[in-house]
Amino acid sequence: MWRRLTIRMRYTVIVSIAAAVCSFVVSALTATLIHDHEVSNIRDEQARSVRRSGFVLSKGFKPPRPLGLEAYPQQIVDDSGKVVTATPGELNRGPITQWRPSGIDEMAEIEICDSPEYPGECLLVTALSVRQPDGRGLTLYSYAKAPPPWVSDRFALLAGLISLGLVATVGLLTWLGVRRTLLPVEAIRREMAEITSHDLARRVPEQPRDDEISNLARTVNATLNRLEELVTQQRRLASDASHDLRSPLTGMRTELEMGLISSEETDWPDTARRVLAGIERLQEIVGDLLLLAKMDSGRRGDLKPLDLSALARSEIDRVQRRFPPQAALEPGVRVMGDRLRLARLLSNLLDNAERHARSAVWVLLRADPDLRQVFMEVRDDGGGIPEDKREEVFRRFTRLDSSRSRDAGGSGLGLAIAREIAETHGGTLVAADTEVGARLLLCLPLLSVEDPGTSDFSDTGPESGGPDPSAPSGTAMAARLGQPSGTGQPSTTPGPDAQRALALPQFVGYFSDGSSGMRIHMAT
User: At how many degrees (to 10) do helices 339-356 and 414-424 cross?
Assistant: First the structure.
């Protein structure tokens, strides 16, 4: 039953009960204070009256008449228990009680209930024992009905009405207050109920306040933004994947149809090779999509300490490439990562560089123990990446126009997969400034550097001596890394890659392996 009540009703019931309890406690305390005050006044008046009458009796005079002048009824009883005199109207009653003070001139107080003379009632009794000069002992009693704990029926009725009004007022204010508080929540609920997968541009209303409900609205809108981006990305992925899958399928279908039309003249082994090439392209795209799906699901892979230098060297030597990469790898650089995924990252970067290079590809790896970072560059001497396209190339199925005109094998997923692998390893992958070609910079957290030995890096300059003055400095490169894509103005706050690269060494654009007359140089 309780669970079926609305939040507004629950809060109203809880607050009303709390208000009723508080009202009862306050009323009880007030009644107790008033009751004690009333009892104290009765006792004081009784004490005064019996002392006056006792003074007269102790001097040997007859009992004062009439006793009716006192505020409360009195009785004078002798030692035999006989009523000597009493307040008019009380003469026909017997002794109010057999109890009396133990000593002469001693006054005592008592409360008696259900006495024979007053059955069903409680009396406040004050008694005083005196002895007259002739030796006669008398006891004076002053008695009054004890007030009830609720003081009086009028007070009880007044307290009940006030408590009831207070509870009703508090309940009504709680109902209205919770209703007003939950109005933004109801607006959020209505808006969320109307949002569908076909209309993700709608947002819930935000209040111009800084409270829990406003924070909820902002969080919901942020979640909707991410959801819209995800749905848009998924739709674009489905569209681009369909396009990229349809192209090889169409090519293979055309090859087979042309072969069937002139089957006798068709070179079937050659046709099979072309169809097999299309199948390999389909397998590559499907494999990339499967890997992206795994990374989108949050699966980080099997992270273990590994030697990135050895992994890079094995990946460079694994495939016979059109332009064998010239590598400068600092040995013993260890990171925490998934070997298969990092190998895929390096393979994608090398494939991308080879695809766009005109004559050479370079790979450089260096660890910076002070920054606790590993920096790897993969560069080529191709057409490069326009500054306003440096973020776009990392989107899924993105291929620049120049690559589309020359590229027969790229699916547009390589760099997107490489960046996502870098991010799942706590690193970054960006396209940085360079004089010639494209320069992709990978940053990963450093685990350790074991047995550096002799570094592959040389800090000697060109044959003319010294670093290349045209090479940008590490600080200049870091500033450029903080620029937003497509703008030439630096951002007011450096990006995370710029912050990591403040002390990053800048590799200049000329390399040498001794046989070709070029040299590798690093300027710090």
Answer: 150
CA distance 241 to 246: 8
Is the separation of the CB atoms in 139 and 76 below 8 Å? yes
Detail the DSSP E strand segments found in 105-226. 107-113, 122-131, 137-145
Give CA angle at 446 (443, 447), nearest 5°.
Answer: 150
What digits encode the pLDDT tens for the residues 499-521? 333 333 344 333 333 333 333 33
Q: Do 436 and 308 form a contact (C-beta atoms < 8 A)?
A: no
Q: Which two tokens stand for residue 444?
A: 């990963």
Roughly how many angstroms between the first and final C-alpha of the chain, as a whole number?
A: 73
Q: 294 or 222: whose pLDDT is higher?
A: 222
Per-residue pLDDT tens for 237-284? 777 677 677 778 888 888 888 888 887 788 888 888 888 888 887 887
pLDDT value of residue 124: 92
Strands 428-431 and 361-368: unpaired
Query: CB–CB of 375/312 below 8 Å?
Result: no
- For the sheet with 448-449, list strands across it: 304-307, 333-337, 448-449
Q: How confident is the model at residue 451 (pLDDT cuts 50, 70, 90)?
A: low
Token pair 């370079």: residue: 362
Rg, the chain, Cα only:
50
CB 441 within 8 A of CB 472: no
CA atoms within 13 A on the CB side of 202: 14
Residue in 332, 331, 309, 371 with CA at minimum distance from that of residue 450? 332
Specify whether the CB–CB gap between 374 and 308 falls below 8 A: yes
Strand ranges inside 321-407, DSSP E: 326-329, 333-337, 361-368, 373-380
Q: Please, are residues 224 and 188 in contact by the beta-carbon 8 Å criterion?
A: no
Strand partners, 431: 440
How far is residue 369's CA from residue 377's CA, in Å, rounded to a whole number? 17
pLDDT band at 299 (very low <50, low <70, confident <90, very high): low
Contact 178, 11 (CB under 8 A): yes
pLDDT digits (tens, 9 = 90+) for 92-130: 888 888 888 888 888 899 999 888 888 888 999 999 999
Strand ranges in 272-354 using DSSP code E only, listed in sequence order: 304-307, 326-329, 333-337
Query: What's the rounded Cα separation, in Å, for the pair 343 and 312?
Result: 8
Bridging pattern class, strands 326-329 and 361-368:
parallel
- pTM more than 0.85: no
Structure tokens given for 378:
């993969």
Q: Where are the beta strands (DSSP E) in 267-332?
A: 304-307, 326-329
Token output for 516: 């070709």
User: Could you tell me if 115 and 103 are in contact, meaning their C-beta atoms sit under 8 angstroms apart?
Assistant: no
Which residue from 120, 128, 123 is spatially nearest to 144, judged by alpha carbons?
Answer: 123
At 449 the three-state DSSP class reads strand
DSSP character at residue 519: B
Place of tokens 């508090």: 170
